[in-house]
């Protein structure tokens, strides 16, 4: 029997119906014979026992989405917008509960969790309106008896696999665009954080989203369920957020049916501080870019490159700011740095730090697990780092800041671009010439200039090189869920 095991009242959750331990398929909640546990990474306590869906349920979800496609795509943009707006309103009305659910299963501080809920909801709002602006074209023909018309139509059934680090927003960002375009949607969220996805399904149902349009299948068989979503002939598009290694495998699987794909993969974000930067602003930008979600985001600062003239000043001020971070359970007051997601995640960070120290890096702050709990790692600063050390060459995905010194603008750009990844980059400078040259020279899909937080619904989110393809959010994000159809109308002169 699946069940919620946490004390909802103690967790501050008012609406107990938002915690669902079952997959949501074709407008119904589906149980399975087996269950898996969802645990709170801050305490190790079991939050819920969740029904463990598998390949059969995944296939059922795809069939449900296929069955609902004709009905949903036939609705007007205004009709779909009204339902998305309803969904948005319900998400915001339940922001506190949704944030608490997120913190319970993922660990990030409640303020961050509630911020993620608002961020995810913004995509529901944005695409509710943007779906009304799916315009076509009339193209002058080469002869008077013809008309050339271009229309845009929904690509079809969309399947998605989403990660544990943003269990609400990564679904909302994809589903909002898909549904606005007239597509139907199936998502397999991470088994570490299924409750946020299922809460979204509950609110989608309350909003009036028809059965089969939005489906959530939760289960531990990532390989088998992933094969269904990437290879099923009724899935027209596959969208994934996660590691580059897994993304490459999923791309290969999608090739068997030549699906349309969007991939938001790993990153190795440089954060460059030039001599003319506002150092205090740069410190605060680095703090929020690096340490939110305990460093477990794909756009987190991974390397801090500091020009030699301000290296000492920046490092000292940065160290003082890091020392003010408060580690603990995300539901506790004043906490701004939560746990990491698993023991393996902590171990991976420990290994990168140890290897880099062995290669010559120095610990300026932190450098080990915290005594707060097993899955907590101290906010850490490493100095004397070079770009070829493990901590700089790999995506850290933890609360560790390697500081790398550089001399010239050209060197900074070269160091920043010396990676297979190209998702996000950041730099601080008050010189307009530097701003333009560096912004154009950085080989990344997104660049924050004197800004440590760059994600928003109106902007195109995505990377280049091995950080993926496609864009999410903005008007460009809708294009990934549409197909272009060319109509050639002849015989019009008779």
Notes on the structure:
The chain is of the alpha/beta class. 38% of the residues lie in helices and 21% in strands. It has a seven-stranded mixed sheet with strand order 15-16-17-14-13-19-20, with helices on both faces. A six-stranded mixed sheet has the order 10-9-8-11-12-22, with helices on both faces. Helix 2 runs antiparallel to helix 4 (110-130). The chain is globular and about 80 Å long. It starts with a strand and ends in a 5-residue tail after the last strand.
What is this structure, in a nutshell?
The chain is an alpha/beta fold and 494 residues long.
CATH fold type of the largest domain: Aldehyde Dehydrogenase, Chain A, domain 1
Structurally, the number of domains stands at 2
Chain-averaged pLDDT:
97
Structural class estimated from helices and strands: alpha/beta
The biggest beta sheet is recorded as: 7 strands, mixed
Portion in strands = 15-25%
Outline the fold blueprint.
Layout: E1 3-4, E2 23-25, E3 28-30, E4 35-39, E5 46-51, H1 55-74, H2 77-93, H3 95-106, H4 110-130, E6 137-139, E7 147-154, E8 157-161, H5 169-181, E9 184-188, H6 194-207, E10 214-216, H7 222-231, E11 235-241, H8 244-254, E12 260-264, E13 269-273, H9 279-291, E14 301-307, H10 311-323, H11 343-358, E15 362-365, E16 380-383, H12 390-393, E17 400-406, H13 409-417, E18 421-422, E19 424-428, H14 432-441, E20 446-449, E21 464-465, E22 468-469, H15 474-479, E23 482-489
Helix pairs in contact: 1-7, 2-4, 2-5, 2-6, 3-4, 3-6, 4-5, 7-8, 9-10
